[in-house]
Design a protein that fits this description.
Elements lengths: L17 E3 L6 E6 L5 E6 L2 H16 L11 H11 L5 H14 L15 H13 L4 H20 L27 H12 L8 H10 L3 H5 L6 E2 L4 E4 L2 E6 L4 E6 L8 E4 L2 H16 L26 H25 L12 H14 L4 H8 L4 H7 L5 H14 L4
Antiparallel strand pairs: 1-2, 2-3, 4-5, 5-8, 6-7
Helix pairs in contact: 2-5, 7-9, 7-11, 12-13
Amino acid sequence: MAGKRRTDNKGRVLRTGEMQRAEDNRYLYRYTDLSGKKRTVYAVTLVELREKEKQIDRDLQDGIDSSKGDITLNQLFQVYMETKSDLRESTRYNYLSVWKNAIEDTALGNMKITQIKQLHIRKFYSELVGRGLAANTIKLYHNLINPALELAVDSDIIRKNPAKDCKKGIGGTKKERESLTISEQESMLDFIKNSSKYSAYYPMIVFALSTGLRVGELTGLRWADVDMKENVAHIRQQLIYKNLGDGCKFHIQDLKTDAGRRDIPLSVNARKSLIRQKEIYILLGKEMNQVVDGVSDFVFTNRLGIPYAVLAINFVLDNIVKAYNKLEDVEANKEHREKKSLPHVSAHILRHTACTRLAESGLEPKVLQYIMGHANVSVTLDIYTHLDFTEIQKKMDAVQKNVKIG
């Protein structure tokens, strides 16, 4: 005689592994996961329980070990970072810092990865937009979240990546990369050159505007990299100032991409700025400057022979703009005219301005790409949408004079 079949309190027959608890009438299902460990899932209704059973059966048949999905997104990210053995230390430090500051303490960061749905990630991005974050910043967060969850998919821990396609339609403010106009550039340089306080920075700023170097490439440039006879600067390394586990200090680092390794012809202005910098160097009686990772002879240093950190350069530029605008206020009032203030200027804006000037001069995009060290020409082409309108107008006038239409 067959044994009596188990039923719930509504008389429905329960399957193997299913039970209904007498104390609260909740349903449970017991099964063995892929590692041989006994697992239990709970549900309020039998219908809900059997939906969970279907998912469990699918996972077991497809070899997905959802038991490992008990880890949180934060824990998964740590595992993901451990797999990235090819990252530069500065990049690793940046990724970890971004995660800690932006994601670690959020509800999403503390969710178990098996519970994360696309809705949760889209909601997280939407909240960031509401806080006024830039679109590129949100995409940076996505570029950390997405591959971490993809690793969980590849490791058969979750069936699909809930972050997939969440990058599409990311809002946020779009920050235009603004370069100085020709007028602003000339006004700023004239002010610096004639300033008793800031004239020492003139050669470095002129060189930056003449070459378009990234700030780390600029501060990391050594006299050994400069060939005045052949009129060329060899860009071979960059200088960073970060804590890579040994306290905040300078480090010599490889260039960001292979495209960054390049030889830049020296323009007349670039050459003059180097000569002037050498004169300042000799005037101050510097025999050598600070040694960083076994190398020294940096071209641009302060009066103590210490290289510039990016924050230091941005601080100087900020002070220059404030001093210029303060003087411009006085002059404009005295001359009864509209004041022409300088906008915010950073080391990156100097680079963007240099690229814009080269583009305005008619330099071919592929040549400009090489000079700027862009890995992708699309970045270079984007510069052509930020050209000085006055220069565009001049070129259009020239075309109309030389080309007969109609």
